[in-house]
Design goal:
Largest sheet: none
Order of helices and strands: HHHHH
Structural class: mainly alpha
Number of helices: 5
Distance between the termini: 17 Å
Strand content: under 5%
Oligomer: single chain
Helix content: over 70%
Shape: elongated
Length: about 140
């Protein structure tokens, strides 16, 4: 039995994976490599991806209420990941945009790459919100 692919779920999952990759890259490689890194965005994003995978591959076998709970849970996890990601980068934004004196170029690079990751998380969040309000099959 073939499973019908849900484009919104796939877009949200891909955007979340990209956001997670950017979070990991900026936390481990660039300017923030020496600072402490929270594992919460990683755990929350993986939980969201598990919820999305369950909806995608077992959604037709699950009751509608469970599908809705999985959608809400995935969105809450992505919102949490986004919030922790952005809050960890506030100091970068402050240094680069509000106190633009003698900051290293790698700090600006880390901020600009982080903005891309935050936008990817936002795309995933908005896509899941739209899916929640879309007509059901």
């Amino acid at each position: 039995m073939k499973t019908k692919l849900n484009t919104k779920t796939i877009v949200a999952a891909v955007a979340s994976v990209i956001g997670l990759a950017v979070y990991g890259y900026t936390s481990m490689v660039v300017y923030l490599a020496a600072s402490a890194t929270s594992t919460l965005p990683v755990v929350l994003t993986v939980a969201a991806l598990v919820c999305l995978a369950l909806r995608q591959f077992a959604g037709s076998k699950l009751p509608a209420v469970v599908n809705d709970v999985l959608l809400v849970a995935a969105n809450i996890c992505l919102i949490g990941s986004f919030a922790v990601f952005v809050l960890a980068r506030v100091s970068l934004a402050a240094d680069v945009y509000f106190i633009p004196v003698n900051y290293p170029a790698s700090e600006a690079t880390a901020l600009h790459i982080s903005i891309v990751g935050a936008v990817c998380y936002l795309v995933g969040i908005v896509t899941l919100i739209v899916e929640g309000f879309s007509a059901k099959n």
